[in-house]
Amino acid sequence: MGVAVIKLKNPPVNSLSLEVLTEFVISLEKLENDKTFRGVIVTSDCPGIFSAGLDLTEMCGKSQAHYAEYWRAVQELWLRLYLSNLVLIAAINGVSPAGGCLMSLTCDYRVLADNPKYNMGLNETLLGIVAPSWFKDTLVNTVGHRTAERALQLGLLFPPAEALRVGMVDQVVPEDQVHSTALSVMAQWLAVPDHARQLTKNLMRKPTADRLVKQRDADIQYFLRFISRDSIQKSLRVYLDKLRQKKG
Ligand SMILES: CCCCC/C=C\C/C=C\CC/C=C/CC(=O)SCCNC(=O)CCNC(=O)[C@H](O)C(C)(C)COP(=O)(O)OP(=O)(O)OC[C@H]1O[C@@H](n2cnc3c(N)ncnc32)[C@H](O)[C@@H]1OP(=O)(O)O
């Protein structure tokens, strides 16, 4: 039925490095241009981890030029995914904090494996950083304003039952059924004529995407100012050190 599977593979935690973001956009563009494909299942090849989100090492201790290049790549992937003409279904087979959660929120439908460890949410505040307005918009468009307001301020990571209750995911299924469920949901979405579904998707999502498109450069400048602050760099270093020391 013309369905591709994009399996993220950037061990150990599928962090969204500049390289991963760039390759993801290229793969998506190829699929968009190949009319034999109508849908994509986005999933992970790293056991227990859908994606650890944006690569913190790309946002810490680097040059301004690097931050700008990285942020443009983050924007690009979000725009491509959010406005994709393809049906995108996230088969979430692991934990998905921050950028990992955002990636799934850009999809049309989310199936999450029923494992209490597989938390998801926008936890930026717990790192001492702030989810940008378009991350916030994506969450609000999925779970509504009040749930998003509380989740964003507290940096909540929802276990599967809670994620389902607040509408962050559409279905929670046993781990070994995530892929087959994604495939059967895909069949349902592909039963709708493409042009009508695509126009409707655009109607729902373009106003949100346009807010970023209209001020992409300003958004990058804003990010640069924010991420370069000494206090923010310090918060990121402390967080990364904590992650690294967990093992030791
Ligand atoms: C009004 C003002 C508004 C201003 C707004 C303007 C701009 C906005 C500015 C900034 C916004 C930036 C947005 C960021 C969104 C993000 O996505 S930030 C990333 C958030 N991610 C996380 O918090 C997840 C952190 N990771 C974990 O919790 C765990 O690693 C895990 C995913 C649960 C896996 O656990 P596990 O035990 O299996 O693995 P380890 O923890 O041992 O990790 C292994 C290895 O990987 C490294 N690592 C983990 N996560 C990341 C990451 N996200 N990036 C880079 N590296 C990561 C970890 O350090 C270990 O490394 P090693 O010790 O060297 O092996």
TrEMBL record:
<comment type="subunit">
    <text>Homotrimer.</text>
</comment>
<comment type="pathway">
    <text>Lipid metabolism; fatty acid beta-oxidation.</text>
</comment>
<dbReference type="GO" id="GO:0005759">
    <property type="term" value="C:mitochondrial matrix"/>
</dbReference>
<keyword id="KW-0443">Lipid metabolism</keyword>
<comment type="function">
    <text>Key enzyme of fatty acid beta-oxidation. Able to isomerize both 3-cis (3Z) and 3-trans (3E) double bonds into the 2-trans (2E) form in a range of enoyl-CoA species, with a preference for (3Z)-enoyl-CoAs over (3E)-enoyl-CoAs. The catalytic efficiency of this enzyme is not affected by the fatty acyl chain length.</text>
</comment>
<keyword id="KW-0809">Transit peptide</keyword>
<dbReference type="GO" id="GO:0004165">
    <property type="term" value="F:delta(3)-delta(2)-enoyl-CoA isomerase activity"/>
</dbReference>
<keyword id="KW-0007">Acetylation</keyword>
<keyword id="KW-0496">Mitochondrion</keyword>
<comment type="similarity">
    <text>Belongs to the enoyl-CoA hydratase/isomerase family.</text>
</comment>
<dbReference type="GO" id="GO:0006635">
    <property type="term" value="P:fatty acid beta-oxidation"/>
</dbReference>
<dbReference type="InterPro" id="IPR029045">
    <property type="entry name" value="ClpP/crotonase-like_dom_sf"/>
</dbReference>
<dbReference type="InterPro" id="IPR001753">
    <property type="entry name" value="Enoyl-CoA_hydra/iso"/>
</dbReference>
<dbReference type="InterPro" id="IPR018376">
    <property type="entry name" value="Enoyl-CoA_hyd/isom_CS"/>
</dbReference>
<keyword id="KW-0413">Isomerase</keyword>
<keyword id="KW-0276">Fatty acid metabolism</keyword>
<protein>
    <recommendedName>
        <fullName>Enoyl-CoA delta isomerase 1, mitochondrial</fullName>
        <ecNumber>5.3.3.8</ecNumber>
    </recommendedName>
</protein>
<dbReference type="Pfam" id="PF00378">
    <property type="entry name" value="ECH_1"/>
</dbReference>
